[in-house]
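Hi there. Long-time user, first ticket. I'm pasting a complex I've been working with (about 488 residues overall). I'd like to know whether the download I got is complete or cut off, because the file seemed smaller than I expected. Thanks.
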Amino acid sequence: MNYQNLTALDMGIAASLILINGALSLLLRLGLGRQLLWAAVRTVVQLLAIGYLLGWVFEFAYWYVVLPLMCAMTLIAGLSAAGRGRRTYRGQRVDSILSVWGSSWLVTAVGLFAVIRIHPWYEPQYAIPILGMILGNTLTGVSLGIERMTQELTSGRNTIEMILALGGSRWEAAQEAIRQAVRAGMIPTLNQMTVVGIVSLPGMMTGQVLAGESPEDAVRYQIVIMFLIAASSALGTVGAVLLTYRRLFSSSHRFLRDRLQER
Amino acid sequence: MSALIETRALTRLDERRQVPLLQPIDFTLHAGDRVSITGASGSGKSVFLRALALLDAPTSGQILWNNQPIGNTQIPHYRSHISYLSQRPALLDGSVEDNLRFPFSLKTLRKRSFDLAAVTTLLGHAGKAPDFLAKRAGDLSGGESQVVSLIRTLQLNPEVLLLDEPTAALDPTSSREVEALIDAWFAGDPARACIWVSHDLDQARRMSDIHLQMSAGVLSGVPQP
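Hi, the file is complete. Here it is re-exported in full:
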């Protein structure tokens, strides 16, 4: 099997496909022209940058190079999880970073130390892409979880106060919102797990196959990754929703609705 | 009669705009008191009532219950005795009966149980037949929802009712049903007390014997002890 390298011209042909999106935007007056251009530029610039960066990191495979990179990736994932949603509250950024960080590093550690068992653990060829895949999915779970939580608390305010007024604890009052928010955060991963291999071939597996790996081996890796992703996004979602709960309900069983703000 | 709830220099500030919502309020609710608070909207009537229900934290001052400060762990217990009823009734999905059974699923009230006979009596005060229990909460009118919400609270035999304009959005018939329910609750025990926030002066006179006014966060007409 041979591996086909891509030239700049090849990439240009693919990039020109964005014109389809542009034409649609013009035709349907979606007003997305600028955003499309920006998204396309970011895709190219970010990926080229990470390509060079990874090339460099792979050459200097020391923990003091890999670890800061992993920290930076996690921080960015945490911040971008916090940046979505219509409503926010003071401390949302911290909650979001904490939950992304805690869940993804715990699960990545299980993956690197217990499942794949590579030496050294920070071997960038493994550590970085695995953390990256876990982060990408965890951040979706966390941001959906927080968004749904703040939405449920806003629309369900009367019910929450009714439960508190009847003598319910803050936990009893928030339970339904917490349940909905955790569900919302976990559903994308569950959907992904049910269609994987049938509707979609995951990127990592596709990559391994393109690089000449046997499909059976690629599938093994993919199965491991799917479970790591599922675990991390579930942990991250639950963590984020519970941290939100702690911010918005005081220990005196009050719902601090004034802390919720429209962006 | 003994003091049930007492506030000492209770104030509340709008945290975001730094505007005072309540000027220092010293107020005592005794057993058997039927108090009404009238005033323009935005004068702080609801703010005061929500503070008494411990739904919003006061900025300064104290609230005492039976002459004791209320600890955090006691708050759910307090709220099951000092019951706040909002202007907008919040019902859960399900039947009227499901809604009336709901409070007994809460930890504070788990030791008590749903009493169908007591609820049927309460329904009778509001002129509702027992088959009302099977209605879907989503099919009820605003007035019927408020009646359900009130019965949900009254079946717990609260010591004090804090009523935040319970009839403001209701038609005259439903208003009378709500008033009848509250009169019947009063008749059940002479120690019961109530604060009724209203902008309807006639109703305030009819339903209370201590009339207070709230204006720009100042509660006036407070009877001297």
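A couple of notes from our side: The longest strand of chain A covers residues 87-88. Residues 215-248 of chain A form the longest helix (34 residues).
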